Amino acid sequence: MLAWQQRIKNGTIVTGKETYQADIYVQDDKIAAITTEKLPGEIDEDIDASGKHVFPGFMDTHIHSRDPGPTHKEDFTHSTRAAAAGGLTTVFEMPNTNPPVNDAAHFDSQHEHLGTQASVDFGLWGICLGHLNEEHIPDLHDKGVIAFKFFWGYAVHAETYQLMYNYKPGMENVIPPFHDGEVYKMMENVAKTGQVFAVHAENNDLIQTLTSRVEERGGSTYEDLLEGRPALAEVLTVQTGIQMARATGVRFHVLHVSAGESVRLIRKAQQEGLPVTVETCPHFLFLSAEDFDRVGPKMKVYPPVKHKSDQEEIWRGIADGTISHVCSDHAPHTQDEKDGSLWSIPAGMCGIETLAPLMLNAVSEGRLSLQRAAQLLSENPARLFGIAPQKGTMQPGSDADFTIVDMDKEGTIQQDNLHSKSKMTAYDGFPIKGWPVQTIVRGRTVMKDGEMVSEGHGTLIQPTSTGQTVHGIS
Ligand code: DOR
Fold first, then answer.
1. Please, how many CA atoms are within 13 Å of residue 375, restricted to the half-sphere of its CB?
2. Measured from the CA of 347, which atom of ligand 1 is nearest?
3. How far is the CA of 3 from the centre of ligand 1 (A)?
4. What CATH number labels 1-474?
5. Ligand 1: does its nearest atom lie under 6 Å from the Cβ of 303?
6. Residue ranges per structural domain of the chain
7. Which of 97-111, 220-234, 459-473 has the lowest mean pLDDT?
8. Strand segments (E) across 106-154
């Protein structure tokens, strides 16, 4: 007699292309069958998803758990619990840890360190530090980094590898922002791997000049911050990156896009057939500068949240497929660290647990279809980073990762209930309709009705291909 590990019955399955009723049978941690027939055999865990939607497991491709490093803000145990609580089955951890993921040995140590803590599956980003680690790029590729990250426009502390949120030229013990020639070389090196070269995009030179000017006249409002760190800082970097991608052939990915003009430039590059992709985050979709008076310093992020017109263009990019996916840029800091002048406090906010609820709420509000949500949170990132069809895919043979969603469930985001260490969120009290109610990682329920039911089951995911350039609506 056959025995199934799991069945999810009576649910409505959502993929990027369609929505249909069927039952899912799981065997050996993989999807074994998707069918309306009743298959014979015992079932270990039988899940009734009547009235619910079953998505291919949602993922968050952009999180900073700061582990090892400043773990008083967050660690991987907490961030992956928060991920599961928020309906995510896979996360990609950013490489600016201490030590950073800058060579094969540190890839291995990070794999081991995070593997013992992970409640969901995880990929590891590799860092590009110019001449400091260029010889390690091929090894990092061979090890299975998910992609390469370059903090364009950031200075990095030379010993702790922490980002300098308030860098000034002349500071000691700092790896200063890299010049364009070195960026070009990084792109050439990553192009040889076929993997994605993803950038934080801000022009530090311009930021230095404009910020000094605003600081000299004592500017301290949110509009002053935006004057010192304007859309132009991102746009210049995106434009340079697109032209360098054209020259080097690298797959160029713009992280957390914040400016409408950047979206327009990327759309044009995509129309020309260049391998350019872009993601955004909920804070650029649901917040704008006008919200600062209400939300306060919690919403300070880099690149900063900009104006309504930027937000509208980013939504157009979601609608027409210019934007491949949505992720959180989860970057917690403590309450104390976030108290202070707008200039001096660090940038970043919690986001991992609120990513899926905010996007599902957008579905409820009619701003997004269920299919588009499946593309943005599962299918597209899996294809872009070369982990499909293992992840983000609803078909036999794929990992049995599911996010079960109750689109009728209403509630509010409660900061105190978040599972992260530092729980600072801009969305405290934000009403949500459409919540993940069950998170299943490779056939094991990790979260049910908001409660963690198993922990520590996550494992490393390595790309099986270099991935595809994902844009447009399929
Ligand atoms: O606001 C941000 N915080 N932007 C980043 O690029 C990094 C992040 C962090 O790690 O704090």
1. 22
2. 1
3. 46
4. 3.20.20.140
5. no
6. 1-474
7. 459-473
8. 121-124, 126-127, 148-152
